[in-house]
Automatic annotation (TrEMBL):
<keyword id="KW-0326">Glycosidase</keyword>
<feature type="domain" description="GH84">
    <location>
        <begin position="6"/>
        <end position="282"/>
    </location>
</feature>
<dbReference type="InterPro" id="IPR051822">
    <property type="entry name" value="Glycosyl_Hydrolase_84"/>
</dbReference>
<dbReference type="Pfam" id="PF07555">
    <property type="entry name" value="NAGidase"/>
</dbReference>
<dbReference type="GO" id="GO:0102571">
    <property type="term" value="F:[protein]-3-O-(N-acetyl-D-glucosaminyl)-L-serine/L-threonine O-N-acetyl-alpha-D-glucosaminase activity"/>
</dbReference>
<dbReference type="GO" id="GO:0009100">
    <property type="term" value="P:glycoprotein metabolic process"/>
</dbReference>
<protein>
    <recommendedName>
        <fullName>protein O-GlcNAcase</fullName>
        <ecNumber>3.2.1.169</ecNumber>
    </recommendedName>
</protein>
<dbReference type="GO" id="GO:0016231">
    <property type="term" value="F:beta-N-acetylglucosaminidase activity"/>
</dbReference>
<dbReference type="InterPro" id="IPR017853">
    <property type="entry name" value="GH"/>
</dbReference>
<dbReference type="InterPro" id="IPR011496">
    <property type="entry name" value="O-GlcNAcase_cat"/>
</dbReference>
<keyword id="KW-0378">Hydrolase</keyword>
Length: 694
């Protein structure tokens, strides 16, 4: 890495229609406003960037790119031009190498100074000509990249995207990948490397993970962040705040670049909150330079996604009333900054706290902010149904299309309510609760419908057309479940196409096995359903049963009157010992027992030391959540009381559980039992940690 600046900004690197010239100009204005400093031009469906990379740009195309580069420079933004030749590049071909240099010469002509070299999403098989010349695929990529780096006179910025760009792709593992080892050893040390985290779309990126990656690649990597990307699912949007990336990452990275939603107008929140995250880094770095006195009070600015979202929503609201045509040409600006329009009052985007209280904030942040966010989003049903959008309206919009691994808290509760209503229908024991939840779901459904009505009245038609199909689709989907008049249609079998979502894709998804079984078995392996169950059982409870730290006198099961198992709980009192010593042995045995299962499926979990100190005991509660809610809660509460009473007698004062985020009902069940979400940025990508003190 030759440059000293931390690169923070946007990579236009998605599949789909590229942004327009005017949209990119607006993006640069956003970057300036939000404090971002980098833009990477890498739209997959610009043919001359990828599929027809040998073709030179026309005069008109060159003029556009040249103008954008000069506008970016004027705003203080680094414009990085990326080329992606890997689909059909012959690495040993002198002709292809000349074509590459000719294309880069054109980029230099229209003012480009910074570059990116992308080999993502391509086949790793070389042609025979390349096999005859290069030892491996990695050696071929390194040879061409190093030559291009020299040809460009060793520019301050050259970013390289490897074909294995996340741990999930590294074969057989991150540490043992010969491809990544070759890249780390042989790529020029001043060339930066893109990395997306443990997965293509990583919920969290931890410091420990990045340290491991940096060790393999022998440099600080730059994150290509797909948290808000949605080109893999045309029914999805990701409007939620930048999250899951610790502020402590900055000293271990060269940069953080967001690859956001394809729809340009819908990236305001992701980029605004990314800017707040970056601003907190810069404030802390400045503070570190000033506070050399060890006895002085250290004040640290902590980035909190929920607080950042509050501020971003306030700033996004006026964008809805900017007068812009459907073709993104802004005509006039009409912003109402009156107190009424900006209500509720702005919330600061971050908190200033001293470092001694950081641990307690890490623990309580999720529970306190979640509870504050779980306010009822009421819209005035009398006089404002077709009126202007409010902050509550756009908060609801963001929560409907939140993040890839989570829904907004209010919409998550709406889904949980419907799930409960579905499985408790026609049961008379809880009739009042059923009607109460049904009324809540009905009101929330009305709010979604009202949101769509109000969206159609906004002046910013460019924003409207980017969001309308998604908002209309979720509104009509929810209305299917909210309209009792349609129930006879479902029961009769005479269903209209609007009642079956997704067309052919929906038909396939309806029969696709989901959950832990679907992604773990390699396609060339014939595995029976019974073996699926055995794999999952070994993963979830095998380590508990094997461990000497397992307290069998604190393990209980519950059977129903038919003697069928409906709940059980396992306990490990020495969870720290299990994680650091026993767990690795067990996972090694699992790799040997199931050689055809993706090794990434059997993950190592390890927590911060303060979690082991505060919540020493690990429990795992399994319960059939399809039984009546009251019975499930009674069983779970009874089991927990028995365990807690015994743990207190043995001198323990806290316990924790590791949950898979893909099962929100189980998460909600633990919260109802008195557990709280515990922030643990080092944990694996899809794990939620909950704790309970007593």
């Amino acid at each position: 890495m030759k440059h000293n600046d931390f690169l923070c900004g946007v990579i236009e690197g998605y599949y789909g229609r590229p942004w327009s010239f005017n949209q990119r100009k607006t993006l640069f204005e956003y970057c300036l406003k939000f404090g971002l400093n980098t833009y990477v031009y890498a739209p997959k469906d610009d043919a001359k960037h990828r599929s027809r990379w040998r073709d030179l740009y026309s005069y008109e195309e060159s003029s556009e790119l040249s103008q954008l580069i000069h506008i970016a420079k004027r705003y203080g933004i680094k414009f990085v031009y990326a080329l992606s030749p890997g689909l059909d590049l012959i690495y040993s071909s002198d002709k292809d190498l000349r074509a590459l240099k000719r294309k880069l010469d054109q980029g230099c002509y229209f003012g480009c100074e910074y570059w990116a070299w992308l080999f993502d999403d391509i086949e790793s098989e070389m042609c025979q000509q390349d096999k005859d010349r290069f030892v491996s695929f990695a050696h071929a990529q390194v040879a061409v990249t190093n030559e291009i780096y020299d040809y460009l006179n060793k520019p301050n910025i050259l970013l390289f995207c490897p074909t294995q760009y996340c741990s999930q792709m590294a074969k057989p593992s991150l540490e043992r990948s010969s491809y990544l080892q070759t890249i780390g050893n042989s790529l020029h040390p001043d060339i930066d490397i893109f990395w997306t985290g443990s997965k293509v779309i990583s919920r969290r990126i931890s410091v420990s993970h990045i340290l491991s990656v940096n060790t393999v690649l022998q440099r600080r990597v730059t994150i290509w962040d797909n948290l808000n990307a949605k080109d893999y699912d045309q029914c999805r949007l990701c409007l939620g705040p930048f999250s899951g990336r610790s502020s402590n990452l900055s000293s271990r990275l060269s940069g953080m670049l967001s690859n956001p939603n394809c729809e340009f107008e819908l990236n305001f929140i992701p980029l605004h909150t990314l800017g707040q995250w970056y601003q907190s880094l810069r404030i802390n770095e400045s503070q570190d330079q000033i506070d050399d006195d060890e006895d002085s009070l250290q004040i640290t600015q902590i980035y909190l996604p929920n607080k950042a979202l509050d501020q971003a929503l306030i700033d996004w609201l006026p964008e809805f009333q900017k007068v812009k045509s459907a073709y993104d040409c802004q005509k006039i600006v009409k912003i109402d900054n009156s107190p009424q329009a900006m209500s509720p009052k702005p919330t600061v985007s971050s908190l200033l706290i001293d470092e001694d209280s950081q641990d307690s904030i890490c623990e309580s942040q999720t529970s306190t902010t979640s509870s504050s966010k779980m306010h009822i989003m009421e819209c005035d049903g009398n006089g404002n149904a077709g009126g202007d959008l409010t902050l509550d309206d756009i908060r609801l919009l963001v929560e409907l299309f939140y993040l890839p691994y989570e829904h907004g808290p209010n919409t998550q509760q709406m889904f949980i309510d419907f799930y409960w209503l579905r499985f408790n229908y026609s049961r008379n024991e809880k009739l009042n609760e059923w009607h109460c939840r049904a009324s809540s779901f009905h009101n929330n459904a009305k709010n979604v419908g009202r949101l769509v009505q109000r969206l159609t009245t906004i002046h910013n038609r460019s924003l409207l057309y980017d969001i309308y199909n998604y908002a209309s689709d979720i509104s009509s989907t929810i209305s299917l479940y909210n309209d009792h008049k349609r129930s006879t249609v479902f029961l009769s079998g005479d269903i209209e196409p609007a009642s079956i979502r997704g067309g052919l894709a929906g038909e396939f998804l309806s029969i696709l096995p989901m959950g832990d079984f679907q992604p773990i078995i390699k396609p060339d392996v014939n595995t029976s359903p019974n073996q699926h169950s055995e794999i999952l059982a070994d993963k979830l409870i095998g380590g508990y049963l094997l461990s000497s730290s397992n307290n069998f006198d604190l393990c209980f099961s519950v059977n129903n009157i038919e003697d069928e198992l409906c709940a059980f709980v396992l306990t490990i009192s020495e969870s720290e010992k299990y994680d650091k010593i026993i767990q690795a042995t067990w996972i090694t045995q699992l790799h040997q027992k199931y050689p055809n299962v993706d090794q990434n499926f059997f993950e190592v979990n390890e927590c911060h030391q303060w979690i082991y100190d505060r919540y020493a005991v690990r429990i795992q509660l399994f319960i059939d959540l399809t039984i009546k809610a009251a019975n499930a809660y009674f069983i779970g509460n009874k089991l927990m009381n028995m365990i807690i009473n015994n743990l207190i007698k043995r001198g323990f004062h806290g316990c924790h559980a590791l949950l898979d985020e893909r099962y929100p009902l189980l998460h909600q069940f633990y919260l109802r039992l008195g557990f709280v979400d515990v922030s643990n940025i080092e944990q694996n990508d899809h794990i939620i940690l909950v704790g309970k003190q007593f």
